[in-house]
Amino acid sequence: MAESKTPLTLVSVVVPFYNEEDNVEPLHERIVAVFASLPDYDVECVFVNDGSTDNTRAVLDRLSQTTDNLRALHLIHNCGQSAALVTGLRHARGDYLITLDGDLQNDPQDIPNFLELLKTTDFVCGYRKQRHDNRIRLLSSRIANTVRNWVLHDGLNDASCGIKGLRRKCLPHVIAFNGIHRFMGVVMRAAGMTTAECVVTHHPRLHGVSKYGINNRLWRGLYDLVGVAWLRRRYVNPDIEDHDAGIF
Known about the structure:
Elements: E1 9-17, H1 24-36, E2 41-49, H2 56-66, E3 70-74, H3 81-91, E4 96-99, H4 111-118, E5 123-127, H5 135-152, E6 164-167, H6 180-190, E7 195-199, H7 214-234
Parallel strand pairs: 1-2, 1-4, 2-3, 5-7
Antiparallel strand pairs: 4-6, 5-6
Helix pairs in contact: 5-7, 6-7
């Protein structure tokens, strides 16, 4: 009698792209290479085109037609990183979900560390201990992270890091608002999820240009603090009584 095989755990890697035509294919290749060395896992890549105006759409469509592990989703208009990320997460099928930025600055080689932590933790946030960004991005992120921790006490050193991991049970708590990618850890803690950090590799950007600066990173992040602080205090996560308990 043939021995039955243990089913593989499906991991969804969700990536938002906006005008990243030169980064799509290399990132897909690196993700596939990582999972080739993980025999207990299967992978689906959920790549979301956030209304790009370059050839990102064409590259995604070509890849989705030539590989069975990539699904391309296209937003009609550019809606921002949070909207693209939420769209990808809602269409993901995996038991575990990993998010990455589409600029090749996150390293898929870190994914195995996230999967190991997700065995015992609900939500894992990356921590770019050594960053390769320009001075403006470094300064704005440092200020935003300091103020965020002072106000929200979320215990995260790098809440805006693009690489995150979450169990499927976390999905109902991913609230669709512009900025959720920066405050996911706060929401997860408010929902009673366990959280952890994972130190990750950070690479310099080689292709394309950054979509963030002072106006849409620092000031917007500080503005969002008010709303997220209110939401954390008002968040409800009721437990449901098990009516089947004791019934045989």
